């Protein structure tokens, strides 16, 4: 009685095996054909093609390493950057405030020709927003390879863009999310934060940094218009310019306008960015509910994650640069709550991103959860903005 059932399942597994074998054969056929063609060529052509293949394998191996190892990834990175500003003598100072006024008397024996000690150069508090911005640029292009402009990233998976596959695009999306924040921040530094009431001269270092950060994110050495500069080298210049601005600020030779209306405008821009990204996530949720098999879900998720990763540092730095404004408006508690919520969202690091139906118990909706985290942080920012606007 069991023979028909056994035979039925035997045939089923045979068909499955043949199907798998057929798929593998289709995938391997081009390589087998290329191998037969290669063995029939002369030794010179074999050497040239072999060298080209070796280079291609090396490029893919480097690409695999660059996309899978995230060097110095640390959601708590703002703590290290802001350690000096959180010290008791700096905690209540705004960015740009004098923290070590010029000395009128020096050590014995250090007098000048007039019999008085030379004055110590004044020192001002640096901008932590600029410091975090420079650190994030350094993280993207120095401590890690910039994925989007790598040759293999541009070649794709047999011509298919990596973002349309489930492979090797997570880190690139994460970096692009950070870069979105850096572009927004450098723009605000130029337009409002790095000048007095919007009427003073634009700081040239910040202007150069903004120009560099607007460079094409996918540029390689050769583009459609001929030779060009690769993206990482241009972004490194932006890093140097932002650091140069902070050096000038510490020497009291630059301006940081830490006013409440500038903070309000900056928070407006941040809230707008978060709202835009949450809408992108919603669009992907509505476009697909393929669960683990949605190839676009991972890059959408990691773009939003990169944005939150960067804004966590920028918002932590903003609290330091505008410390007296936040204290005077009694915003410390709600600001701390907002920062904790953003930091908690960074604990969400799933191995595989699922974009399932929101009511599904098998396929979770990681995009919906990330969108909720974004909107929750945005609601806190809007609340802070409302207090500042009163």
UniProtKB/TrEMBL annotation:
One matching Pfam family: DUF2333
Keyword Transmembrane: yes
InterPro entries: UCP029693
Keyword vocabulary terms for this entry: Membrane, Transmembrane, Transmembrane helix
Transmembrane segments: 12-31, 43-65
Top-level division of the source organism's lineage: Bacteria
Entry protein name: DUF2333 family protein
Organism: Mesorhizobium metallidurans STM 2683
Organism phylogeny: Bacteria, Pseudomonadati, Pseudomonadota, Alphaproteobacteria, Hyphomicrobiales
